[in-house]
Amino acid sequence: MYKAEELRTLSVKPKINDIDLNILQDYYRKFLNPFIYQYDIKDDSNPNSIQLRFDKENFCHLLGLESIAKYAVSQKDIHNYKGLDGWHNIQNTSLCFKDLKRMNKSKFKSIKAKFIYFYLIPVLIENPIAVNFKNEYVDPPTKIDCDILFYTKDENAIVHLGIKKDKILKYYIPKTFFVEKIGENGIDIYTNNQKKIEVTKKERIIML
Predict the structure, then answer these.
(1) Enclosing domain of residue 146
(2) CA dist., res. 179 & res. 182, Å (int)
(3) Is 151 within a domain?
(4) Could you name the domain of life of the organism this protein comes from (predicted)?
């Protein structure tokens, strides 16, 4: 099993058996959660600056844990797989991949790429390629909900991180993380028809 620090220095994706939920949580805790990322965005119509934070509440959603658990646990227990309750549940109960597989093997398999490519998020947000995202421009249509989509190519896959401004918090949070194999035509349907924007990381601030 890798440690979080080892995951940060990988140059190739890990095997699923070399990571687990507690390792990804530790990785998030050390390399994403403590920081405020500030970006300058150059867009023809609306140049501006944005702030992005990776709160503990966002972790379970990025990994799709609720989607695995929702048909396997009761409605009153689903809160343990999302938000801050989900974060604490992983920390306090040693919830692991084996448990998730037991809950819903086919769903676990379908989103396994999220776990494998999660280590790339700090790399992705360092020097992002980005588009202003409109879900109606995707064919076939998607329910993905974000304002800006960061993406990068890794081997034969495209790794995506969607961010959205939270109306209450007033800063951007990570809303979606997904990996798609590149099709035979080499086109990524999620970025193909979107408007490209220039995003430059201005600084990374450690939160006290």
Answers:
(1) 18-204
(2) 10
(3) yes
(4) Bacteria
